[in-house]
Specification:
The complex is a heterodimer of chains A (163) and B (144).
Chain A lengths: L2 E2 L7 E2 L26 E2 L2 H11 L9 H5 L13 H7 L13 E9 L8 E14 L2 E11 L5 E10 L3
Antiparallel strand pairs in A: 1-2, 3-5, 4-7, 5-6, 6-7
Chain B lengths: L12 E3 L3 E2 L2 H11 L28 H16 L5 E9 L8 E13 L4 E10 L5 E10 L3
Classes of the chains: A alpha+beta (163), B alpha+beta (144).
């Protein structure tokens, strides 16, 4: 499968099987231990592609002249851009990419919007792990920051790990 | 009529956008989110069992539901000068190519705090059969 590349970044490995054997399995995941993360420059193109995928068409994401007239004073990304940031801010061996990882639900709180050209960093860790109805769960928590150290959003997710 | 905090009432409904799910829409979401989990790409892999579950084919990303609910909330909030502050969701049922899904919000309650005003919203996504595929709660701020 092809690799996706964005300007100034390492190509993104789209074959999630490739590094599967170096990722942590449920048994290895230590709640409280930070995950490795990488800074990511959010481009206008990446925002527009994300918008297209969910049908976002509000001009605040596309029309700079309009966006300048709003409370935000310029273009922003939709709040749910963290869906992309979760993968763009983590390396190929991150356990979130283990094939068969099933997302059971997530909760997110939004502080300020991400914007085009923001250099975004992630602080993330597993917070808890448990077994329920023979399924292996991991709870992960995540906070995204911009280049000024301001919190963009914070969230928690429940995943069922592949057996 | 423009939505204001004052006129909102418990039970008021927010209609979200209808979304046709296809193999192409799922592939586009892979490219846009960088989530290339084979659950969303690989039919052969999806013929297998996941514990007690067999999906029978690729499924849509759960977070595609989340993105649609978020789109509904922001498109509703922006004209009112309000801010989407929180969204919590759970996936109830897998969504597959050929499904048509639509998010809805129902105003649950309003709360005034020391410095601001908040609207709590029950959210859900239903498929073309009327089955709930995702449920959750949202919080929108109406600044003073």
């Amino acid at each position: 499968m092809a690799k996706v590349s964005s300007e100034g970044a390492e190509p993104f490995e789209t074959d999630f099987w490739k590094d599967a054997n170096v990722r942590k399995v449920w048994d290895d995941i230590v709640p409280g231990e930070p995950r490795k993360t990488i800074p990511y420059t959010l481009t206008r193109e990446a925002i527009e592609l994300y918008c297209k995928s969910v049908g976002e068409d509000h001009p605040i994401y596309f029309d700079e002249a309009y966006a300048k007239t709003t409370r935000y004073g310029g273009l922003i990304a939709p709040p749910s851009i963290h869906i992309l940031l979760m993968f763009s801010c983590t390396p190929a061996d991150d356990w979130m990419r283990s094939p068969g990882t099933v997302n059971a639900g997530q909760s997110w709180s939004y502080n300020i919007p991400a914007r085009p050209n923001d250099v975004i960093t992630l602080q993330a860790r597993a917070l808890d792990k448990f077994i329920k109805r023979e399924r292996l769960f991991v709870v992960h928590d995540n906070v995204f920051f911009n280049q000024r150290g301001e919190v963009i959003c914070s969230g928690r997710g429940w995943t069922i790990r592949p057996v | 009529m423009t939505t204001t905090f004052e006129i909102l009432t418990t039970g008021d409904v927010i209609d979200g956008p209808s979304f046709a799910v296809s193999r192409e829409s799922i592939r586009l979401f892979c490219d846009a989110s960088l989530d290339y989990n084979p659950l969303h790409l690989d039919d052969d892999y999806m013929k297998g069992n996941f514990g007690k579950t067999n999906f029978g084919g690729i499924i849509m990303h759960g977070m595609n539901n989340f993105g649609l609910i978020s789109r509904m909330l922001t498109d509703w909030a922006y004209p009112a000068g309000a801010i989407h502050r929180r969204l919590e969701t759970r996936w109830v049922k897998p969504v597959k190519p050929g499904d048509v899904i639509q998010p809805t919000g129902i105003i649950k309650s309003k709360q005034v705090t020391q410095n601001s005003r908040w609207v709590l919203i029950d959210v859900m996504v239903k498929n073309q059969a009327g089955d709930k595929v995702a449920t959750g709660e949202a919080m929108v701020e109406f600044p003073n």
